[in-house]
Amino acid sequence: MHEIAQRPARSGLRRARRQLLDGGELPRELVGPELARSWLRSWQAGLQPAGRMPGAPHASGAQLARALEQQRELVAHAWPVMEFLAEQTEGTDSMVILAGADGVVLQALGDLQFVSRAERVALRPGATWSEQYRGTNAIGTALAERQAIVVHSEEHYLERNAFLTCAAAPILAPGGQLLGVLDVSGDHRGYHPHTIGLVRSAARMIEHRLFETRHDVRHWHGVVLRLHAQAEGIGTLTEGLLAVREDGGLAGANRAALRMLGLEWPQLARCRIEDVLAEPLQLLMDWFRRSPSVPRIVHGHGGAALWARVEAARPALAARPSAPVEEAAPVDALAALDTGDLAMHATLQRARKLAPSAIPLLVQGESGAGKEVLARAMHGCGPRRGQAFVAVNCAALPEALIEAELFGYERGAFTGAAREGATGRIREAHGGTLFLDEIGDMPLAMQTRLLRVLQDRQVTPLGGGKPVAVDFWLICATHRDLRAQIEAGRFREDLFYRLNGFTLKVPALRARSDLEALLAQQLRALVPGRELEVEATLLAALRAYAWPGNLRQLASVLRTACALLDAHEGVIGWQHLCEDFAEQLRPPSVTAGATAPEPEDLRSISRGAIRRALAESGGNVSEAARRLGISRNTLYRRQGD
Ligand SMILES: Nc1ncnc2c1ncn2[C@@H]1O[C@H](COP(=O)(O)OP(=O)(O)OP(=O)(O)O)[C@@H](O)[C@H]1O
């Protein structure tokens, strides 16, 4: 495995680039062989180094979630290693990135302070870095070359990527298939030649973990050989790993074992143990049965001696023959929410740290800003994923019903109760997460009961049933200022401290800087496979709009627009909007400057929009709320603002 050891001179790179563009010839003495091959591929893909980048696809939230699910083993094993790498590169203004075999970024850790917002988004989960779209770059080129590589500054084929220095190493499955790539990208001025060594070791760590746990190499009655030139090297990261089936065929290896045994990946599947070692399988099995932990000397056919320890292929061979190999890995739903806004990014970083904890959380943000979506993502990334996520909207339930809904009731507890009684939402959340939306709207009597549940960790159904122990992660959400509610005597202070282990803030859409990324993400999800654009004046108006219904409203507007879009149309324009929404949008867009309204104007804009929507829906509140893309509760609340 080698990377471009000596960086080509800048002048040489420029000369080589000119010659390539002039005639398709690349003077290889000016660039390394890997770089030369990659530049040629980029040129053949029709990419222009200095021109506008052709639209590299960016996976939608749903596509990303699917990719993470499909590659969950890789993602799970990579994450701790990425954290380790991030620690090693701390303070160097760099990011640690995991991409799949198709070059799509799956996870990213860290942040690049020196780059623009757009450039930051391009390094976030969902972005594609295959050579086909971005030309020579460490992720795409390491994948294409199947080897570790550094791509520094102007070695990037596209000039717009010259601000980066990147070191990447591919991650291979035990059968040699490409699984993905690990990368450290940073400011080109901070190029450090040791980074590639770190990245390569980190990729090896991931491969090691994958080898230890994968079904295909460890789930039958064969043996695994740990190999090293020194006995002390066995069990370390530099050991060779070779999986041998019980019939003697080779089932998998890591790169170190291939090197020690003089093998190439394509030969692996065709080889048997006697093709690579002088010792017959029978002898290895004998060693294993008699003294499995003792290292022995084995001999390659070239005569080289190696130390080997023989182990059962299945770690718990005797004890649990069909035990699942590994707990399902988390789907990185939090990463999918990171679309480039700095405040949201900070919230998501905190959310990621808090997801494995049981600390009660309070999510604060306007209605429709995505509080429940965030809570669900945290549940999906924490240890309770796979268990229930129970969401209760405390504002949507009539006061008389909240109690029964939350705490459950015994048979015949009250008039109108179901005959068989009800478990209650709190008990349904047992083992999982209870999400109480609009907690600020919970009546005081109910607050007292909830407080008792949180203190006693048990719930007593209405009608005098026995208390039942419950265990859940509590996440509450509110758009209200709970401290002000406490001062006004509407919220219990002791409950506030119980449920507010930490407050996470979800920014309002009008305060976010990633409207375009959100638009693109939602459009891709609504119309997969079509790259839709938004007409320029409309985009400016959307940017200036106050978005009283936040992401819920945006989703509703885009759903309508996509429904009105003809199959041949690729641009969303004013004609694709509901008339009332277009009207709300026009005033700020036609006024000079089209700047965002001042915060004190927002209330009146929102009240005006509600008045119009109500008038147009003949006073039907549900219809008006639907038109605005907000909930009935929000509409009532905003009317009174
Ligand atoms: N990141 C996102 N991408 C796309 N759509 C989103 C995103 N976040 C939220 N939405 C959309 O906005 C809607 C509202 O989100 P959510 O229910 O999480 O908001 P909320 O803050 O809990 O609202 P409320 O307080 O009114 O219950 C979702 O149903 C979804 O359609």
TrEMBL record:
<dbReference type="Pfam" id="PF25601">
    <property type="entry name" value="AAA_lid_14"/>
</dbReference>
<dbReference type="InterPro" id="IPR002078">
    <property type="entry name" value="Sigma_54_int"/>
</dbReference>
<keyword id="KW-0805">Transcription regulation</keyword>
<keyword id="KW-0067">ATP-binding</keyword>
<dbReference type="InterPro" id="IPR003593">
    <property type="entry name" value="AAA+_ATPase"/>
</dbReference>
<dbReference type="InterPro" id="IPR025943">
    <property type="entry name" value="Sigma_54_int_dom_ATP-bd_2"/>
</dbReference>
<dbReference type="Pfam" id="PF00158">
    <property type="entry name" value="Sigma54_activat"/>
</dbReference>
<feature type="domain" description="Sigma-54 factor interaction">
    <location>
        <begin position="343"/>
        <end position="563"/>
    </location>
</feature>
<keyword id="KW-0238">DNA-binding</keyword>
<protein>
    <submittedName>
        <fullName>Sigma-54-dependent Fis family transcriptional regulator</fullName>
    </submittedName>
</protein>
<dbReference type="GO" id="GO:0043565">
    <property type="term" value="F:sequence-specific DNA binding"/>
</dbReference>
<dbReference type="InterPro" id="IPR009057">
    <property type="entry name" value="Homeodomain-like_sf"/>
</dbReference>
<dbReference type="Pfam" id="PF02954">
    <property type="entry name" value="HTH_8"/>
</dbReference>
<dbReference type="InterPro" id="IPR027417">
    <property type="entry name" value="P-loop_NTPase"/>
</dbReference>
<dbReference type="InterPro" id="IPR003018">
    <property type="entry name" value="GAF"/>
</dbReference>
<dbReference type="GO" id="GO:0006355">
    <property type="term" value="P:regulation of DNA-templated transcription"/>
</dbReference>
<dbReference type="InterPro" id="IPR058031">
    <property type="entry name" value="AAA_lid_NorR"/>
</dbReference>
<dbReference type="InterPro" id="IPR025662">
    <property type="entry name" value="Sigma_54_int_dom_ATP-bd_1"/>
</dbReference>
<dbReference type="GO" id="GO:0005524">
    <property type="term" value="F:ATP binding"/>
</dbReference>
<keyword id="KW-0804">Transcription</keyword>
<dbReference type="InterPro" id="IPR029016">
    <property type="entry name" value="GAF-like_dom_sf"/>
</dbReference>
<dbReference type="Pfam" id="PF01590">
    <property type="entry name" value="GAF"/>
</dbReference>
<keyword id="KW-0547">Nucleotide-binding</keyword>
<dbReference type="InterPro" id="IPR002197">
    <property type="entry name" value="HTH_Fis"/>
</dbReference>
